[in-house]
Each structure stands twice: as structure tokens, then as C-alpha cells.
Amino acid sequence: MRAQNVVQSEYRAQNCRSASACTSTADGGREQVPLAPASAPAAGTPSAALLQAFHPATLKAISRGDFVVDPKLLSLDSLASKCALCKQSLIRPNANGCELDFRKGQELKGFAVSDPSSRVKGQRKEQPVCLECVKNLIGPVSTTSTAATVVRRGWVGPAEVWFERTAVAEPWRQVKVLLGEDVVALQAKGEEARLAIGGRRASTAAEAALNRGRKVGEAARKPLAASPPCASSTDARDAEGRLTIAAQAAKFLAGIKAGQCVFYSIGEEDSTSSVYLATTWDHNAARPKPLGRPSKARALLETVYWDTSGAASCTCDRGRLFFGAPCVHKLALQALEGPRQASHISLQRGARVVEAPCSKPGERVFGVYWNAASPSPHRTMVHFGASEQFPWYCEGRQSGCSKTTDCSHILEAKRALQRPDGIHRVSGCLFSEAQLERALVSVYRGEGDVQVEAGEAAARGAHERCAAGAQGPAGDQGSPSVDASAELEAYLLELVIGGHHEATCKGEICFCKQHPRLFGGIDLGGEACASRCCSSASASGKRARSEQVDGGEAGGARGGVKRRSKAFWAARERDAAEPMVADGARSCKDSEVEGCSGVGVGRRGEVMVPVCTSCACPSRPCTHGASGRVAVVLPMEAEAVQVEIPKLVRPVDSWDVHDPEVTLLRQPVKVSELVARDFAELSTMECLSAPCPRAPPRCKTKWIRLWQSAHIYSLQWSQEVKVRIFCCTCPEKHTVHFNGEALGLFAWTRAVIVTQASCQLLLRSIQESGSASNGFISACAEARRQYKPSAVLLSEETWRKASLGFFRLCGRSILECCSICGLHPKVLLCDGLAGLACADGGRQKGGLSGTSAAAVRPFTAPSQDSAGVNVEKTMEAGVNFCAASLEGRGMKRRLVIQPELRTLLARFSGHHPRDPELGKSLAPIEYQELLVALERADVEAVSDFVPDPDDADADPVLLHWRRRILMEQTGQIRSKNQSMFELLDGIEREALRENPRWPPLCPGKWSELLYGLGAPLSVSDDSNLIQHGRALAVVRKLLLGGAATGEDKATLAEHAPVLRRLLDHYGDVFPDFFMPALHHLYRLTLFGRGACGLGVDRAGWALSAIEGLDHCVSLARDFRTQGVPPNAEQREVFRFWEARANDLLAGVESLTPPAPQQYPLSPAELRLLNGRLGLETDGSEAEALPPDHPFCKEQRELGCYPLPGWEQKRPLPQYRPFEDELGRSVDRREEHRCRSGLTVGEFDAEIAAKSSVKSAKRLRQHTKGGFVFCCPHRVIYGWHVMLRGESPRDPFTVLYTRLTDETFRRS
């Protein structure tokens, strides 16, 4: 409460400042004017004329000061009724008197009146200017209890007082002299700002008079001398008329120039690391969002900056859509500044709490540094609203901040308010008009590049790369980029903006080509049939659309429409008299049936029959052209008879499927616009027919054609139609049913057909509300009854069944990945979900229930062959993998291997001071012993500390004992400890120079690295410090004496961020005392990533390659210690080993086989390398295993990974001697924190033993939950059931058996 009072008092003090005013002249200068005329009347009781002219309620509000207007200037005879700038009505006449009128939701209710003695040409009355226009065109308007002030943009002087009053509840008095020429200048400025952000030019008085009085619907007459419209950077649109990203960026820059958008600098002063707070931009509506508490209309500011990779970064939703996603803020930043590469040091500097000006009274907006331990400059926005029920609001609620109590950001803002200099206030435009003009030209010509790496398209699996705003062709100085922006919009159209673009026909495979009768292709040269259904729309003329929609028939003949023939009406009367006429399928001749392919069986066991797709007219014999289509044969009374997967599984699929016109209709309409009258016309022309079967039925009888009555139902209408089906003559009634997929229909039964749009509407209602659709269906039915009592309605039960059948049909096709990430995301998230059956909150075992769960092999069990034998793979340290602990042979993946030394190292770093174990600072004896142990040659000696039993506060007691280590490991451990000693020695010298205390405090720049090298063995792997082959190449360059370039720093920022943050403190190279430790980190990362044991009967390719780097590092160390420059012979030796290292190590870092002239690999070594990469012995990609393969049994029964590219490609082996026959770890220390070590039955039995016998039976029937994979956009890529506790083997099983090395290289 105290902090809230501080905010309110400070706000009042800030807004109560008043000083002399300045006004802008028409030519942009400023002149001092008096605050009020010498004869300005004092505010008092309104005049008699005012009492007679205005409504009593309005007079009362003016007298109380509810409206910021001067009652002395309200003269209806000489005052205009509309604002001179925005043209909104301010004075509205009424029967009981005039009233003051303002827009709904307008915050500043008031207006200023121009001086009557300063009218200019064209001003016959005094011009009112509303305070909203003053805020938009001049500057923020602040209102206190006694004054209304305006702070001009770009003016460093005091605020200007426009209105004042003596006390609260008194009328206002205008002290600002608003000249007529000032109003003209504001009008020109407002028109310029409106044109800059994409508005239309206002009509002049001559143009308005030219078009005045014309008839309704008459085209406006153009002026005689109409100038051609000028191309503008803010008007660039795509083929569908939407503003492109570049055009929106130009609009944003124009908004900065007009004062509607802001770009506040909050970074370190005089630094290359630029950090800004920018106005939130609505990319869907192409407009800015005003500053305020987040809602549909308002938003807080976004953080925009150059990151350490040299790329523009933004915190808005569009900018975080995917890696390198373009947004308005990034393009504006590129246009205003050249590309910069920030450093972590400068990004962490700057004001911790900043305040942005907010125009709404009683509101304040703060930007708080979101995490002091993070290198990101992101500011978390905090909003304070005095009029809100909960004054404080933090936008961090969306990412974990508390919603019930004050989070750390709100507390930091309150603490800053209590300090005199705790808040840095930002204001004003940082960029000159010349900079903004250059930025507009830059965006217009597309000079700022934003590389967009899009994922593989879901349907095609293709990799797309879009570039926004690429530079136009040389010599074109006046046109923006076309190709780049068009490609960008084509890809991002369905992702964010949600627009619809017209898809094109896919050719012969398109559905419109498979139904030539409906969508064209009929030979119009021949004679029309009896029912005239072969006549085209152009030949028949346009029909007059009937006004009826529900169930009626089209109106009679109209002018311009050909009359029906006698044959047509005779056929219609025959059909009406016999609605269920069955005759032989005369289109199927015996000679043709004999040559047709026979009836087959589908993959799901359904009976299939080949059908004809060239039946142009049911009144003519079918010629049975070549066709590869088949139809499913079902019983006549079956449900869900339409089994074709819809082309529009989701509404967004309409962006890939074109919407052709049904040309058979007399007035062609698109498929998406078909309604009841259209289906009635198609039914009259006998177009609603099942495909003609080309082979006899399976029962060896004949097909007969059956016309029957059916209803097409929508949630808004229904229509009775006639549908043709084909049925056999046997008692089973095998039937080929009508398929309405091409017309957007779903056939539920032979008599009930529903529209797919209604099914999609029901699906969306369920997804949005989370409840059943019964209420929605009944509401639609009740509304139809109100408008048409005789409407034919479908029951709710049938609607539910039909919609569920359509959902199941759609589910077969919903196998698409994220449209942004593609089939293989760069970032793949996985997690285990336990307790799936505990949604009711009951205290019972979670998971999925199953009576045979205890007897099923888990998903992570090793694969078995047809004989039931596990696939085995023997693992040996130093040959197949690099170990992490002291046990085993070969190279280790840790720099410091002894656990007691790692603990002391982590405590010395001080990186996590709140950690109960590793947060304690080192005592002097502990730090001294750490240095001694690292320098000691005897690595089997162990230095351990225990608490003093006599004094708990005293220094710990040192104990010595010995550990047995393999002889081949001692040299490796000794070398690594020595490099670590040199590192600590150099850090100690730096720390003592900054603070001469003992033991020294670890400098902050080294704390993160030392903590990573000293974290416990169970959670640490030092090879993770360098995460990619490209980062290994940069480290190799630094080890060989090179300096890091900007591209190298960007690579380290992406793949080795800890090393990049350390490099920022030293410039382009690391200090010399870090080189030995960096060399060991490079080696353990190189061999730990798959280069270990690549030699067969010799040292191998990797060891031969690393030899050159080892010699170079040793020579460079000798050069530093000898104190004299190397001679020519030494330099020649160094260059030889350097060239050898660069030639061979580049391939080892990426595990790419070397060229034969560099290092020929033997066939055994090549097979070994291919096996490491998951390839076949010949180096080809592994093919997907058949679904019925024995290796796929467990994963087929317990998992679901249906996406293309996620099929199982290889078996999961049993790694001996670490795992048992079910894949469980033999050594409990290996699978830490996540394993149970028990089967599902043993686990449940152990839990049940501690409870009742009744629960034992129930627990044995439950699994342990599910394990899911998804992308950052929360699109599920697959899942499997966990039969035992979650462990690292769950993600390993999926990644090893289903993904390829090429996938990991792209990720």
C-alpha cells in the first residue's frame, strides 16, 4: 500500500508542473505566447445565453468540470459543431437543448476553441480541437485536479498549460491561445500522418461539391485533372490485397514519425548493443496497439534488440514464431540501424527499471529487467492502474509469475519507486526526421534482410527458405522488392495473418478433374440429353436465384432462361410418380464387365470394386473410360457409408485445395457456396449419383440402379433430393453408395447426407467450449423452427453420430506436423505424463488401466527377432563410447574426474549461492587443498573434508586416503588436473587484482564455466559445453592462435553460449592460462561425440587427426614460456602440423569420411563409421521396417508415431553389460533419479504391499502414464505408453530407432 501511495503521489507531483507555453507555427518553428489574453474572463456562472442553449444536464456537467471546456467560449452562433481535425461531432442538438457529444470510450473528454480574432481564410467560425487530436498530433495530455497540460513531442522545455481551474468541481478556463493558423498547421499535419499510415486522402471542397447530389448507386465523377496515384511504401500489398510485412514496417516507421508509435532506448549508453522498447503491433490488423493494460485493444511494450549472433530479436508473438521469424519491429530496427553484434556484457547493462510515458491518467508502465542472471536484455513490463481493482499487473503471469501475490518484478518496481534515482524515465523520439525518411526508403527498396528458415512443409516435406525484403534489381530505384516479400507472405499467410489465398488446380489428380460433369469437361458440341443436364451454363443462360433457401424448389422460368423440353417434364413426372424406381444398370454392358478388373479387398478388409469416373450423363450409356478409382461396397442400411478421407480435414486446408465453380448449374457458384437451391437443381439434373461400378458384385449377381429420396441437412437448412445408388440383386444387398466429397457433403446413410461445413462447425464448438454439442444443435434447430415451422430437422442423436463419423474420417488424415517446424523440428520437446487416470483427484494409482499390463514388454525393451532373442550390442569403454566416471577405460568425457575436486570447484564458482550443498563458500584450507590436489602428481591420493566434530562452526577437517585407478588412466587424469590448476592460477591472479582478499572470490565471468566443470557427476557432462561441430571448428581456430571473427562469435553464441559469454570479456581470443583446459575440452568433446574407437587394427582416423592439434598446442605453449620469438624452423614445424590438423579435423568434427588422398579408410573402418551414423553398411539411409516386422512389436503395440520420417528404421539393442533383458540398468548409478528398476508388476506389488490387498489388484492393472514428443508450438509428433517409471531410455528409444543422423545435423 505504501508503494501504491508513492506511485499516486509521484504521479500527481509530476503532472502538476506548469510553466510558460510554446506553440508551433506553420513552418515548424516555436514562438512564446502568453498563457492567457489580458482580458480573459474568470470562470464563473455560465451566461444566460448558454443556459438557454444547452441541456440542463450538460450545463451541470460543464459547471462541475466533467468536460474540459471553457463555458465562456461556448457560443453556438460562432462555434463550429465538429472538431476541425478528426471531424467528430462535439455539439449535438437536442429537443431540450444542445449536448456535448464524444466518442464512446474516449478518455479525454474536452476540446479547445480557436481565438475568434485569428480566423484565416475559409474559417467562418471558431474551430474546436478535441483533446484526443491534441494528444495524437502535439503530445501527451495530462489532467490533474487544477490543470490540463500538454507535453510537446521533441520539446525539452516544460509542459504547456492549456486549461486551469481554481478548485475541484469548478468549471475549466482555457488559458491557451489557439490561433487560426495553428489549426491549419495541425490539419496539414494530421492529413500527412493519416496518409503515412495507409489512410486515404480526404476530399477537397471542390471534389466534394463535384459529387454532391448524385443518385444513390451512381458512380462518382472524377475530377477533370486527376493526377495518377503515387506509389507508397505503406501501400505495398500482395495478390489478395493484404499489406505485406515490409509495408507494415513502413507503416510502423511512419507511425513513429507521426507520434503514434515509439522506439525507446533502454540499453547501455554509447554502446553497440542497442536495446529498445517498441509499441506492440497487431500484424493481423496492420495497426499499432495503444499502451495500456493488455486487452484486445491495448498492449504493453515489446523488447527489440540486436542479439549476440548479429540478428534482430524481438519478444513479440510474431517475432518468436520460429527461428528468424520476421516481424515489423525487426524490419524497423534493420531500417533504422545497421546490423550489429551485441556482447553479453553490454546487454546486461542499462537501467534495471525504466518507465514509459502513458497518456491515460492514473496509469504507469514500468519495464523491469526480467532476470539478473540471464544474458537476455528482455524487460518484463509491469502496469500500474490506480482505477483497477488490482492496481499492479505483471506480464510475466503468462510465463510463471504469481497471479495472487506480488512477483519479483512488481517488488523490484516498488523498491525502485522508493529510491530517488531508482527509475529511469524514457521519453521522446530518438531518431531525427532524416533518419526516419532514410529508413522508409530502406524498407521501400527492401534493403534490410531478414533470413527466414522455415521448416519442412507438412504436406510436402519440403524445406523452404524465405527472405523478407531482399534488395530489388539493380537500377530500379523506385520500386520495392517483389519476389522476396511475395515469397514471405505466401509462406506466412496461413501462419499468423490467417488470410485465404486461392489455390490452383492440381491437374489430373485434382478432384475437379475426376468429376468432369460437375466442374466442366462436357462436350458441348453434341446434342443435349433429354434432361438437358449436359447443357453448359453459358448455353442455358443465367437463372434467377430464388429467394427460398430451405427445402423449396427453384422458381419458374425467367427471362433469358431457356424453357424446359417436353422430354424433361415427362421424365420428371415419371420420377415423381415412382420415387423408388429400380432398373438395370444399362450403362454396364456384359462385354465391358468381362474386361473390368475384379472385386478386391482393401487394407482394412473392406470389399472394393473398380468404378468409372467418365460417366458424363446418366441418360446416356457409359463408355467406361480408363480409370483407377475404386469404391467400397457396403450393406444398404450401413452407417458412415462415405469412407473417402475429406480433402478439407481442417478449415485451413482450404488454402491448399482450390474452390472451383460448379459449371453445371445455370448460375455457377463455388463449391463452398452451395446451398439448398443448388442441390435441388443438381438433383433435378440427376447429378447426385454413386460412381458406376465396372465389375460385377462379389455375389456374382448384377448391379441395378436405384433412385431414392434423401435429405441433405445443414444446421441452417435442409433439402430433399434424389440420389442414385447401385445395389446387387442378392439378399445381402451389396451397395455402392453415393459419395458427396466433391460437393462438400458427407453421406451418413443412404437417406441422410450432411454438409461437411456443419460438421466442422460442431467440431470447433466442442474444441472451444470443451463440452458436448447438444446445446448448439438444439439452439440451431429451435431458431429454424421460429423462422420456418415446417422445416425438416435432423434429430440430435443422428447429428451426433454423423459428426462423430466425420471426425473419425478426418482423424485418418490428421497426420500433419507443425506447419512452422516441419517434420523434424530444430527444437524437440519430450516429457512423461503420469497419472492420466487421476483427473478426479482421487488418491489412486494413475496411468492407463489394462488387465494385461504386467505381462507386456515395455516400449523401451530391446527388440527381439522372430525366435524371441534380444538384439544385443556389447559396449566397451574407449572403443564404443567415452565413459564419464572413474571406472572403465579410455578417454573420459569430464575435465575433472575426481568427485571431491568437482565439488570444491563448484563451490568456489559461487554460481548458485542458494544451493544447500554447492552454495557454501570455500574455507581457506579447502581452497588451498583444491590447488594442491590439482597440482599433485599422485592422482590416487584423495583429499576429503569432514565437519569438525568438536566445533561445527570451525573449518572442516582434512582427511587423506587412496583410490585405486587403472594405470592407463593416471596420465590422462594428471594432464587434465594440471590444465585445471593453470586455469585456477590465472583466475586467482585476476581476482586478487580486483579484490586482494584470501581466499579469492571467483570473478563473475568465470563462475558459470567453473560451475559447469564442477557440477556433480550424475548431472554433468563437460562435452556439452561445445554442442556442435561448427563450434568445434571455432575452438580449433582459437587453439591454433587465430582470432574470432563476428561469424565465429555468432557460431559460439548458438552452439557454445558459455564460451561466447566468456569470450566477450576478453575480446577476440581467450587468455593463455585457459588454453590447456580448452584443449582438453576440445578433445573430450570430439571423442565423446562419436569419434572414439574409429580405428580397426591401427590408431585410426580421429587419433591421427588430433595428433596435429596436440603438437600445435604444445608448440604454442613452448613459444610462450621460452620468452623469445620462434625461429624459422620452429615456425615451419608449426605450420606443417597446423595444416594437417585443419585438413583432417574438419571431417572428424562433422563425422564426414575423409577423401582417399587425405586418409584412406579401410572397409571395416568405413562400416564402423556408417554404423555410428545410423547408415547401412554401404552408406545409404536406413529404410523403414515393415509394420509386421518382429523388431517393431513393442513399439507397434505401445506407441503412435505416424508422421512420415518417424517410422521405425532400426532395432533397439540390449547394451551389454549395462542392461538386462528388458533394458533396465544393471548398475543403479547409471540411470539416476528416473528409474524404478522394476517391472510394472513388481512395482505395483511393492506399492500394494504397503497398502490394502484390494488396492494391489487394482494397481497391477495400471501403466505409469504416457511419454510425448512435441515441438515448441505444442504440436504432438508422437507418444507411447510407459509400462514402468520414466527414464532417459524413453526418449533415447525413439531418437535411436526412428530418426537419422541427417535429421540431427539439421536440428
From TrEMBL:
<keyword id="KW-0863">Zinc-finger</keyword>
<protein>
    <recommendedName>
        <fullName>SWIM-type domain-containing protein</fullName>
    </recommendedName>
</protein>
<keyword id="KW-0862">Zinc</keyword>
<keyword id="KW-0479">Metal-binding</keyword>
<feature type="domain" description="SWIM-type">
    <location>
        <begin position="302"/>
        <end position="338"/>
    </location>
</feature>
<dbReference type="InterPro" id="IPR007527">
    <property type="entry name" value="Znf_SWIM"/>
</dbReference>
<dbReference type="GO" id="GO:0008270">
    <property type="term" value="F:zinc ion binding"/>
</dbReference>
